[in-house]
Amino acid sequence: MGSGGDTVTASVQLAVRPKPGRRRIGGSRWQRAENAAGYLFMTPWLIGLVAIVGGPFLVSLYLSFTKYSILGSPKWIGLANYVRMFTNDPRFLHALRVTFTYVVVSVPAVQVFSLALAVLLNRGIRGLSVYRAVFYIPSLIGGSVAIAILWRFIFDTHGLVNNILATLGVQTQASWIGRPSTALWTLIILNIWQFGAPMIIYLAGLRQIPVDLYEAATVDGAGGFQKFIRITLPMLSPVILFNVLMNIVSAFQAFNTAYVVSNGTGGPADSTLFYTLYLYQTGFVNFDMGYAAALGWVLLLISAVFAAVLYGLSRRLVYYGD
């Protein structure tokens, strides 16, 4: 009787259970419909990726091996543009020096200034939201054309800086932007002034550091400087890596301020000839598009090298809590 009941139960289960083949077909159809809907929603983004990013990306790579002046057809010349760049173009090397100086000086200065203010604001002062808004404003408007024009008046011969120096008894008649020795430094100061965005990111990172660590360090007799070196910097290292990487990429792409301040020439005496400004002059002033494309790819490789070095150093210097 028991064995017969088991047999009947097993038979009923087999009858009720859906056939494997039919369920597999239904499931695959449903999955295909879901995939089709997903690709349909992704279509605008895919079209933009191919038409706006991928297509020009590949075309610029091809043009970098050609001689092309817009008016005619590209003529294949192989590596001639790259050979010319490193052997017969002193302005290219000068633009590299100017850009590297700008990056090496301004990026660390931005990190130090923004981190110092973030630490100060993280001490629970009143009106924190107001300070954050005020300090963030330069990041919103600092790279605009209007601010670059204003910067020219601030550092002009009769500008704000010279008037302040005259009040302090320091007489100077020259324009800071008009002198090759100081023009680049005015743009570096402008970049440092745009410290708001990294400061907000640092402030958010500081808020994520457990208070227990500082309390334990206080019990052990650690001072403020020791806490900063032993706790704050290691715990904040991923945020520092992010800010440094983003600021380096942004500094290499700096264009608006140098263009407006120098009227598109990179002067005086090419002292503000950023790499991107030289690329613009080559492609859209001299109409040497093939060479400009080669300049763009070299800039991409330089940025990639910096990113790779940072990520390599992060294995030893960045603490992720694991």
Give a verbal description of the structure:
This protein is mainly alpha-helical. The chain has 2 domains: 20-55; 86-317, MetI-like fold, CATH 1.10.3720.10. Helices cover 74% and strands 1% of the residues. The protein contains 14 helices and 2 strands. It has helices at residues 2-16, 20-63, 80-87, 90-121, 128-141, 145-154, 160-167, 183-193, 196-207, 211-219, 224-252, 256-261, 275-285, 289-317; strands at 66-67, 75-76. Strands 1-2 form a two-stranded antiparallel ribbon. A hairpin with a 7-residue loop joins strand 1 (66-67) and strand 2 (75-76). It starts with a helix and ends in a 5-residue tail after the last helix. Mean pLDDT is 84; it is low at 1-5, 7-16 and 21-26.
Please describe the structure with a list of short key phrases separated by commas or semicolons.
2 domains; 322 residues; mainly alpha; 74% helix
Task: Write a concise synopsis of the structure shown.
The protein has 322 residues and is mainly alpha-helical. It has helices at 2-16, 20-63, 80-87, 90-121, 128-141, 145-154, 160-167, 183-193, 196-207, 211-219, 224-252, 256-261, 275-285, 289-317, and strands at residues 66-67, 75-76.
What are the SSEs and their pairings?
Layout: H1 2-16, H2 20-63, E1 66-67, E2 75-76, H3 80-87, H4 90-121, H5 128-141, H6 145-154, H7 160-167, H8 183-193, H9 196-207, H10 211-219, H11 224-252, H12 256-261, H13 275-285, H14 289-317
Antiparallel strand pairs: 1-2
